[in-house]
Amino acid sequence: MLDVAGLHAHYGRAHILDGVGFTVAAGEVAVLLGRNGSGKSTTMKAIMGLVPPSAGSVRFEGRDIAGQPPFRIARAGIGYVPEERRIFTDLTVLENLDVGRQPARAGLRSWDAARLFDLFPSLGAMRDRPGGRMSGGEQQMLTIARTLMGNPRLLLLDEPSEGLAPVIIERMVHAIAALKAEGLSILLSEQNLHFARLVSDRAVIIEKGRIRWAGTLPDLIAADDVREQYLSV
Amino acid sequence: MEDLLIQALNGLASASSLFLVASGLTVIFGVSRIVNFAHGSLYMLGAYVGWSLVTQLPEGLAGTSVGFWGSILLAALIVGAIGMVIEVLLLRRIYEAPELFQLLATFGVVLVVQDVALLIWGPQDLLGPRAPLLRGSTEMLGVRFPRYELFLIIVGPVVLGLLWLLFHRTRWGTLVRAATQDREMVSALGVDQRRLFTSVFFLGAMLAGLGGTLQLPRESVNLQMDLAIITEAFVVVVVGGLGSLPGAFLAALLIGELHAFGILILPRITLVLVFLVMAIVLVARPHGLLGRASAPSRGAAAAPDPPIGPTPRPLIVAGAIALALLIAAPLLLRDYEISVLTELLIFVLFAASLHFIMGPGGMASFGHAAYFGAGAYGAALLAKHLGAPMLLGLAAAPALAGLLGIAFGWFCVRLSGVYSAMLTLAFAQIAWSVAFQWVEVTGGDNGILGVWPDGWARDKSVFFYLTLVLCIGASLMLRRAVRAPFGYALRAGRDNALRAEAIGIDGFRIRWLAFTVAAVAAGIAGGLFAYSKGSVFPSTLGIPRSVDALLMVLLGGVQTLSGPIVGALAFAGLQEQLMRATELWRLIMGSVIIALVLFFPQGLAGAVQKAWGK
């Protein structure tokens, strides 16, 4: 589904990604784990074209999309949910969803507001509320729903559990499981192993812009040294 | 009583036209963050194109309603298409350029359009036809009122309503509102923002064109329409609150009525009334009537200013050589050339003073001529009324400019971005109208004549050396200040106001001081300017002079310390040469500016610096 190889990216002179490479298989939930500042968000942004990769390839369903503008990458079928949520605060819930809307995709059940309100019932109760007057948890659901309106085949979720109350995190776990059941492939980034193990099949560990370890979640749980070296704070 | 009613209705009719132009401006600004100086040119083109269409209708259509109204609509659409072309060919390529750089580009367009219009339609005023169906007048409340004016009064609210529907009831409108807040996110959701921007430009330009072409039955079409309307439209947009359509409508009503009644009540201050009101509104409501404090649009992608390093050795050598040449210049040149060189030096200091607040300070000023002019008038008034010697006049120049800087700066540095820039413009216009209308003291439009240097400095070379010492000295001191702890604090506040405050920097005081220092430096330049010309006119503090300073700074490059020097020499030198060489100097100047913007988006000095870095 997604095959990232030798990806480099810079912010000005700062070298953030130093040859990142990993894959996400169709239908799986992979998690990009790493500490603050390890390059998780930049990896997501580089895949999405929001940070232009300076070298390397990003193959999505066999096509190299590295260097394309973000809107083409989105239309190719990658949905991006940013860490800071970036809700349009002046727009209502329904309008936010409308911005994300893209044509239906062959072989995929297309998303609409009604289906998304089934997935996130609390959003349905506030369809005309401006995004700026929602709680953090509600905004997190809206930002995922908005991206789903583009009918992606692969979802990039940047730190979806950050700053959320435990009860909301629980709902997020259910939502991700439901999306996986729909056949969606998901790449999420996390610092929080606890959340990651609840939803992911496979983990990729990034540190200082390089991939240091990759394997299944059970393997990671068993590998104390790996967790100690790359994840403990 | 009848007069009042007629004036009120007149005011409403003007408000409608003003709203059409301002609404386009505010929509374009909202999405692209471009301060589109060329919006007035689009308005003017609307009037000209409409005139051509109406007067050249084929036999069967001439004089008919279909012909007239069809021409009006077609003209608006054509101007919309012109706006699209400008966006695609020019602005699209420079969205990533530093803030305000686009302003320079659109100003290049203004110059080009002025000469193109001159070439196509000639210098004479053109009279448009009356509107079919709306000839004559209607009796209302006991007064006869032209029907066309009544029609215009209705157009404003109708357009406001249609725009509201467009932005709130269509997906396109939703996308535009979303892009106003975070265009990068919109594109990550699969929206082609280039096409979105182009369509927004089409809409904005079409509204400007419609505003212009609807003026046909009201007033003659002429080449001054562009700059006359753009200043007012800016005022309306800023008073209403950037990006707010209802705000623009309210502000247009306010400004329209002010004009109408100002003439009746306070004819002496009509010229400044609008700016006075803008200043009051901005001081009371820093984001305009209906505007809100908004975070800068995400994805605007302005890279942070690069740090300022020590002056590289080759630059010191080049500067020393230039200085040596300047010192030797009077021995080699004739009087006229020495005068030109003197003026260039004055502009170098003027540009350097504006750069001081724009570059390291991060505050754009659209009214920097106020301090240049204050310096000139300070020197001239002392010379005229007290017969003061030149050195006293030259000392009074920065003093008066500095006082003005302290007073105006206290208000201006509280605001940010375009609001702050517009407030500087308002104050500059207020200063201008004092010079223009306080005839007893300033001589009004006739200016103050006979401001000549004292005997010892009357020789062109001596005055040149005096100018050289003062201008280069002051410019070097500004340069030094940028590298002093004060300059660090100033730049820290520009890069991140909150963090700077958090480490104990009093941002307001630092910016206020910087503003005052810049005013003092501009005042020195202004004082020298008065003595070099022997006279002072209100134009020394007019808008064109402020625009000149902006162009010099932007051309040279905001992000480099040498930018203003290079920019002043390039701009003033080029303008001087072109104006002597050709009638069409605007066309050439505008094209040069556009080319520079496209090929050297870091400004001239920035481009050299970049090439050197490689």
TrEMBL record, chain A:
A Gene Ontology BP annotation from the UniProt entry: L-amino acid transport
Domain (ABC transporter): residue spans on this chain: 2-233
CDD domains: ABC_TM1139_LivF_branched
GO molecular function: ATP binding; ATP hydrolysis activity; branched-chain amino acid transmembrane transporter activity
SUPFAM superfamilies hit by this protein: P-loop containing nucleoside triphosphate hydrolases
KW ATP-binding (keyword) present: yes
InterPro entries membership: AAA+_ATPase, ABC_transporter-like_ATP-bd, ABC_transporter-like_CS, BCAA_Transport_ATP-bd_LivF, P-loop_NTPase
Entries under PROSITE patterns matching the protein: ABC_TRANSPORTER_1, ABC_TRANSPORTER_2
Cross-referenced Gene3D superfamilies: P-loop containing nucleotide triphosphate hydrolases
Keywords assigned by UniProt, alphabetized: Amino-acid transport, ATP-binding, Nucleotide-binding, Transport
Presence of the UniProt keyword ATP-binding in the record: yes
Pfam families: ABC_tran
Family to which the UniProt record says this protein belongs: Belongs to the ABC transporter superfamily.
Name of the protein in question: ABC transporter ATP-binding protein
The organism of origin for this protein: Plastoroseomonas arctica
Taxonomic classification: Bacteria, Pseudomonadati, Pseudomonadota, Alphaproteobacteria, Acetobacterales
Automatic annotation (TrEMBL), chain B:
Pfam families: BPD_transp_2 (PF02653)
Keywords for the protein's UniProt record, in alphabetical order: Amino-acid transport, Cell membrane, Membrane, Transmembrane, Transmembrane helix, Transport
Topology versus the membrane: Multi-pass membrane protein
Gene Ontology terms, MF aspect: branched-chain amino acid transmembrane transporter activity
Superkingdom of origin organism: Bacteria
Cell membrane is among the record's keywords: yes
Stated family: Belongs to the binding-protein-dependent transport system permease family. LivHM subfamily.
Protein name as catalogued: ABC transporter permease
Organism of provenance: Plastoroseomonas arctica
